[in-house]
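S.,

Sequence below, as promised.
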Amino acid sequence: MTMPSGGRIRSPQDFMAGLSLIALAAFALWQSAELDAGTIGQMGPGMLPRALALLTGLCGVGIVAGSFFWQGPGLERWAIRAPLFILGSVVLFGLTVRPLGLAVAGPLCFMAGALAGTEGRLVETIVYSVVLTVACLGLFIGVLGLPIPVAPWLIGR
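The prediction came back faster than expected:
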């Protein structure tokens, strides 16, 4: 997809990136609309998502505005591979974390996400997946004490 470079938009890639951030912020605001924001002194569950959505939207507006003033790269052909595998890895994690546990869902998610790129090597990806999964187990189970199943098929929790 190419956009003509003779228009008012001097950086089409930044323009589209800014619009994407604005759309993401609008989606987050819509999804967090029913959560109680609370007050500054007693924050509710909706405060952080809304604050992050607003900051993301403001960044998007800034990037869109900058695309009219600074010269930048044009749009190139969009590849579907990376978004497909990244989104697929998130869906795979969601489908496998409860029945198989984080010990299995983590490496599956990282390895599926690694397929988004074309430069990954199998051994490096496996090592990277195992190291990140151990780090996630340490953080989410050990430090934060979250009730995430580790390996219910092996240790029962």
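Residues 80-144 form one domain.

Coffee later?
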